[in-house]
Amino acid sequence: SNFFDFSKRACAGTLGKHSAVPSYESKDQETFLSEQYGTPKVPDMDSLKWVDDHLPRPSRAVDYPSDRVTPGDIRRALRGRKSRSSPGPDGMTYGILKGLPTLHGPIATLFTRMRSANNQLPPEGWAHSTSILLYKKGSTSEPANFRRIGLSNVLSKMYNSFLGRDALSHGVANGVIDPTRQKAFIPGVNG
Question: Which of 34, 41, 104, 163 could bond to 71 as cystine, CB 3.0-4.6 Å?
Fold first, then answer.
């Protein structure tokens, strides 16, 4: 390849990335995925009963956070996201939301109403994702040589990040999660 192609790929962030295309039939992919993921693996719940005995009991239970989501929260959440993220089924990237700050208020209102409504489910469209295949290595005729990635809607990912943040703070406040032992997924802690 020439220097121009190298420079173009380096600037686009695609340097070193493979763009191999599967050379197998779609039915082979469906068969492979069905064999790999078709039967849910149900854990033996009896083997997990020991967990309850080891959880500390809080002296006072702390309610689950139900604070309002503000436009500032939306701005802060977007600040840490890549503008050129791959879009999900909605075709939207974080960059679009960053460039339209007038939407931060309505999005904050939507998230607040969804959180405050009893058992309010997110819109059905948020449950859908677009699947893409990333080539790993080996023969392109083998489905196992591709990794399946699901691209979700931007609003769904943002809303779930707020729920995850709240669940984490609730777990820490109630002594269910011990940040001195639990390292993964704790902001500011190297795990």
Answer: 104
Tokens of 11: 């600037």
Buried b (16+ CB within 10 A) or exposed e, 11-43: eeeeeeeeebebebeeeebeebeeeeeeeeeee
Tell me the CA distances in angstroms from 20 to 36, 163, 183, one per residue in order: 22, 36, 36
Where does the pLDDT of residue 16 fall: very low under 50, low under 70, confident under 90, or very high at 90 and above? low
Separation between Cα atoms, residue 124 and residue 26, nearest integer Å = 27
The answer on pLDDT for 56 being more than 80 is: no
Confidence band for 57, pLDDT divided at 50, 70 and 90: low
Q: The pTM is what? A: 0.69
CB atoms within 10 A of CB 2: 7
Specify the pLDDT at position 119. Answer: 59
Look up residue 63 and give its two tokens: 């309610």
SS3 assignment, position 3: helix
Half-sphere exposure of 174 (CA within 13 A, CB side): 13
Contacts of 19 (CB under 8 A, 6+ apart): 135
Among 164, 153, 159, 188, residue whose Cα is nearest residue 69: 159
> Hunting for tokens 């960053």 — which residue is that?
98
**Amino acid letter for position 139:** S
